[in-house]
Amino acid sequence: MVRFITVFCLCITIAALGVGLPPGKTARAASITVTADFGTRVDYPLIKSKFGVYNSGYVSLARWLRDMPLIQALRPAQVRIEQQWGDEHDGWPSVITGAASNLQYNFTQLDSLIDALNNANLSPVIGYGYNPVPLQPSGGQWNNPPSPLDAWGSQVANTVAAHFRQTNRYVAEHEVWNEPDLSGVFWMGNESQYFSLFNSASRGIRAGNPDGVVSGPALCCSDWHNDFLNYVNANNLPLDVFSFHYYGDPTSGDSHPIGTRPTAPRLGSTVGLAWTTISTSIIRCMISRRTPSSSTILRRRISSTASNRSWQCPGSRT
To answer: What is the pTM of this model?
Structure first.
């Protein structure tokens, strides 16, 4: 089906430019004809680099592999994988076992998932969480702060990041924990303890992969962001993407405690801003001004002003 659409363009009159029209002449609007063939499918011009998808640890590897062709057809910029170390479900084996003094790792199924995403030319974002059994305090569980806390970053985060680099598996982003500010749910510790965890983990990730894209703190419902950014700056910590989650209808005008406009200028010139919108679907979008050293990171230069935020997902693959 072919439709002809006439587009009328308002012209700036010569008089408006300070030049008079000849006597008896009238300025007329120019017109052009655009032909649109609605029977021909074309590429996605607007959204293929502006959204991502997400699955939690409640989705089995079999379901991931079953749905991979559908995910690939969507061509999302990124695919977020939330690990659930210490609280594994749906056939996922424990990635981290052993003792606190001798941690053991089993990447078999996780590698299979990363391989499937890489083979589909998709960009995995791995959520580093939660607390594996060997680091759980006596009588504690998966959402307790690790014990010792430093071991989670210097050993676990370091080893996981190094593993993907050494095995040549592409990971677009390494996100430290999930919603630590949701008290009593994903994190039983306090703000200060999470900051210490991020300190260790961000350094551990960079030690394991100097090109690794570090993100956090994946906040959902608090005003930790100012303290977090101050802490990161004061301790000169690696932070490439500041991430947070938004629950609600993005079209309703609902506000979020973490405002993008007040926060974005404080990130500096090398940190991106990422948020996950959670309503009927999960959408992950980013504002990025990062210039990564790794050639595997796709960079797009899109300007941002106070009234017009640019949209981009760093770490996308073409």
So the answer is: 0.70
